[in-house]
Design goal:
Length: 289
């Protein structure tokens, strides 16, 4: 086997970016079809306007969009900017995760987690919906990762595990502590969102959040652990409030009952926590030592 350390890092980032654009192309299918409850495998990609099958050479991430000048080859219908945007964002996200993880056992797991978040963000933006077909497998995936990664790497791996082993869980195997951490994170993430929705409902008498946000935060909490989950919610509430207030200020009548797809902001918060959270949380914790 060739020594992977001899490959210049830039080559690794290019590979990650190209792979990300290809996965982004698949995420476009997921984002378009999952809310319609269509199969994500069959049939092949079709133009939403004329129904013509899209040839492989017209389905190359980003490049085909540019070459076709945002129009279907057959009917000349406009192709949404969302398609290349999702492909470029996924490419950027994969480069970010590759930068964070390097070539490690964590890399494929973090790429799956980040991809699921991106699909949820865009589906919530378009449909105000966080589908169970993504969140339920996402929760199962998080639990598998929680057990597998400490066993594969022989380290605590997850951000919250060291904080748990300092307590009552000292003598337990690290994979078990990691699994307990997943349960704590899930209950904290899902519970916080459930409590926020419940409080809002009591105060204003309207349903503020669907259970989709709660299930999404079960997944995020299980995967990231309690420390990064708090950071996720903090970033989500902060960015959501800023955008929400900005949108309300632009409206003529102050409609406080306007619904924001909160999953977008929680998803962005989770991505930020995954990529940049650990040193931030460490610095914050250091302020109190
Ligand atoms: Zn067409």
């Amino acid at each position: 086997m060739p020594d992977l350390n001899l490959i210049p890092p830039v080559v690794g980032y290019i590979v990650a970016g190209v792979f990300g654009a290809i996965i982004g192309s698949f995420l476009n299918v997921v984002i378009h079809r999952v809310p319609l409850e269509e199969s994500i495998v069959f049939p092949n990609s079709r133009c939403p306007s004329c129904g013509a099958a899209i040839a492989f050479y017209d389905n190359i991430p980003v490049l085909s969009y540019v070459a076709l000048r945002a129009k279907c080859r057959g009917c000349k219908a406009h192709i949404s900017f969302r398609y290349p945007a999702v492909e470029l964002l996924t490419a950027a996200l994969f480069i970010g995760v590759a930068w964070h993880d390097g070539l490690s056992a964590a890399l494929p797991f973090d790429l799956v987690f980040a991809s699921a978040l991106l699909a949820l963000i865009f589906i919530d933006a378009e449909h105000m919906l966080l589908p169970n077909v993504i969140t339920y497998p996402g929760i199962a995936f998080a639990i598998v990762a929680r057990i597998a990664l400490p066993l594969l790497t022989g380290t605590p791996h997850f951000d919250d595990v060291p904080s748990l082993t300092q307590g009552a869980l000292t003598d337990m195997p690290v994979a078990v502590v990691s699994l307990i951490g997943a349960v704590i994170g899930a209950l904290l993430g899902g519970g916080s969102l459930w409590l926020m929705g419940w409080t809002w409902e009591k105060l204003r008498g309207v349903e503020a959040m669907g259970l989709g946000d709660v299930k999404m935060m079960f997944m995020v909490g299980a995967y990231l652990g309690w420390r990064l989950t708090i950071l996720t919610i903090f970033v989500g509430v902060l960015t959501g409030s800023i955008i929400g207030i900005a949108l309300m200020a632009r409206q003529r009548e102050r409609n406080m009952q306007m619904l924001l797809p909160f999953g977008i902001f929680l998803g962005v918060g989770a991505v930020a926590a995954l990529l940049f959270g650990a040193p931030l949380v460490e610095w914050y914790a250091g302020q109190f030592r």
